[in-house]
Structures are given as structure tokens and as C-alpha cells.
Amino acid sequence: MATLRTRLTDKDERFGPQRRAALGEATTTGLAWCQRANMALAEAAADPASESMNKVRRWFASSVTTEEDLESVIRELSAGFKKVTATLNSNQLIFTDMPSLRGATGGQYLRLLNSYAFVFGGRYEKLPIVYIENAFFGPHGSPLPDKTLWALTVVHEITHIDASTKDHHCDNDGLRCGPMFDPDDAAENADSWAYFCADCANALTPSQINAAMVGWQSGAMPSPFLDRALAALCLCTAACAVPAQPAQENPMSQDHPATGLTPVSARRPGPPKVPAVRVGELRFEQARLSRKEAQGGQRCGYLAAYKGDTDEVAWRVRVYEVTYDPRLEGDVQDVFFAAMSLSADGRQILVDNEDGARYAVDIDGDHAVHVRR
């Protein structure tokens, strides 16, 4: 074994005893959550006034959702969670990483490498395999405790395999249904499924639920004080270190060896936090379009000018185009801003994105141009 490691220049074990134990615990925790979700869904179907139905409404309903809609959602969730429970309770679930990604140096392959995890969804592989990548055990920026995040990610990924869920919205975007997040999208959204089953198991504090609802990138971070306050309100109302490998031109050019498919789902950390730039009465910030606004197209790469400290948009412009592979889940292909600054002459906003490109946008929003660095 030592000789083999030397020949492979293997300096560190990817999944040592501690990580294997953590993945085992995450699987056991996720299984317990899903079992509680199955019981909650049965109760919600039998009693529309139950606390379990309130939890279904919390994650999958808006003000316009009807009782018929909820009945349909419960049937869909029940069928899906039974499959997820069976997978988590089997002896066939496999955790690994994608070795061909270890040398990724840029683009969507680096974003896959730095994601929490990804899968080939819809049972394309004969066995359920979750590919664990850098953010799972590394720095991730999530406000959730590691053990909660690990179990949540495992459930999230298995719903892709067994229930063909999508990644319409993540917890950093906000999971509350409304104008920006349609209940129909929530019903097939992996993070909504994962948070729902954690909620059914009472594994989330009130402030963690609130942060996921409004989006923790918005600054709604959990706090013990808020937990106590929200809990009191409820009572009152009673109602994902790897050695560097030689870079490859395209580490996934062969796609999956058995299917020829690229992964359809990857859970990645939220976009970098980029401070706003202020010029006079305007506040310039990165903007992310809702799925309805984007109409199936690009949601990231936009710069918006807001009036003062309000949400009133003076103008919005697409800074750069993102080309998407339709076989690969959109969120891992999104390219966000990495930094923003005002040009020396004060006439342009300079935007650096995650791929290392720089763009200059006139402060009147006329156009954006690529700047050679």
C-alpha cells in the first residue's frame, strides 16, 4: 500500500476514519429524518389541521396554494420519501469523490470540485452513488452546524436520485414560496425536500428555519436570541485536503464511463459575498434574477443600480453571458461576481467574476465590456 501511494503521489487519504464515520452518521441521521417525514406526511394527509400539515405549508405552499394543491404535494412527497428512505436504509449507498476532477483548474469542473456533492440523478447508475467534494468537509459559509449540513446534503442528493428533484432554489437564495419562488418549483426542489424532512424531525432551530426561508445570504443568520424569541412566538400563537494532480484540459471530457452523461445535480456553496459600491445616490450590487424573470435563461451575471438604500431599481444590465450545458444542473454552472470596485476615473464599475474575467460597466448602465487583465 505504501509503495502504491508513493507511485500515485498520494499525500493524504480522501476519506479517512473520521470522515467515514461522519458520512455514516450523516446517513443514519438522514434516514431518521426521512422516517419522521413519512410519518408527518401520513398525519398531514389524515388531518389538515395538524402541525405536520403546517410544516408542509411552510416549505411547499404560498398564499394562493389550494387544498387540492397540498394533497397533490403530499402524494408526491410521500412517494419520493419512501424511495429515499429505502435507499438510505440499504447497504448499497456509496460515497466517493470524482478522481478526474482533482486536477480541475477552472470553469464548471472547478465549481464541481468545490461543491458539497453531486450525483448522476434519476437512477442512471446501477447503484446510488454520491460524489463528495471539497465543500462538504471544507469551508462552506453555511450557518448550519456541520453535522446538520452533512445530513441535509446527503438527503438533498438522494432526492435527486430517487425523486428526480431539481435545484431551483437553495437555502442561500431563500426557500419561502411566493412571487420569487413558485410552489410548483418548491415541490420538485431538492433543498425544500431536505429542509422539510429535517423540520419534521425537529432538527432545525426556529432561527435556522427563518434563515433558510429568507435566504442566509441576505444576512438572516441563526442566533440563540432569535431562537428563543421565535420559539416564544410559536408558543404564544399556538397555532461538502486533496493533493494537487496534473491539470487536465477537460477532466470530465469522457463524462460518466457507463452512461456518457454529465452529472445533473450539484449542491454548491452560496455565491461570494461582494460588498456594494456606492456612487452618489446609487448603490451598485450583484443581482440574481428569479426563475420567472429569467424565463429559463441566465439568472446570474447581472449588475443592478438601486436608488439609495431602497430596493427600487434604477437600471439593470447583464455584465457577461454564461453558456449552460443543458445536461448539467444550472446552479453549478452559474458564474457569480467575485469582486466589485469603482474605476479610478469614477465612471465605471469594475466587476471580476469567479472565472477570473474582468468587465467594466458604465455607471449609467449603457453597456458592459470585457477588460483584458
Structural account:
- Helices cover 38% and strands 15% of the residues.
- It is an alpha+beta fold and 373 residues long.
- The strands form three sheets. It has a four-stranded mixed sheet with strand order 1-3-2-4.
- Residues 219-262 have low confidence and may be disordered.
Q: What is the count of DSSP helices, taking H or I runs of 4+ residues?
A: 13
User: Residue-averaged pLDDT, rounded?
Assistant: 82
Radius of gyration: 22 Å
Fraction of residues in helix = 25-40%
Give, in order, the helices and strands.
HHHHEHEEHHHHHHEEEHEEHEEEE
SS class: alpha+beta
Largest sheet: 4 strands, mixed
| Strand arrangement in the largest pleated sheet | 1-3-2-4
For the terminal residues, how far apart are their CA atoms?
A: 46 Å
Task: List low-pLDDT spans.
Answer: 219-262
Any idea what the shape is?
Answer: globular
Q: How many β-strand runs?
A: 12
Classify the beta-strand content into a percent band: 5-15%
Layout of SSEs?
Layout: H1 2-7, H2 17-46, H3 51-60, H4 67-88, E1 94-96, H5 107-113, E2 117-119, E3 129-132, H6 134-137, H7 146-163, H8 183-186, H9 190-200, H10 206-214, H11 224-237, E4 265-267, E5 277-279, E6 282-287, H12 291-294, E7 302-307, E8 313-318, H13 330-333, E9 337-342, E10 348-353, E11 358-362, E12 368-371
Parallel strand pairs: 1-3
Antiparallel strand pairs: 2-3, 2-4, 5-6, 6-7, 7-8, 9-10, 10-11, 11-12
Overview in brief:
With 373 residues, the protein is of the alpha+beta class. It has helices at 2-7, 17-46, 51-60, 67-88, 107-113, 134-137, 146-163, 183-186, 190-200, 206-214, 224-237, 291-294, 330-333, and strands at residues 94-96, 117-119, 129-132, 265-267, 277-279, 282-287, 302-307, 313-318, 337-342, 348-353, 358-362, 368-371. It is built from 13 helices and twelve strands.
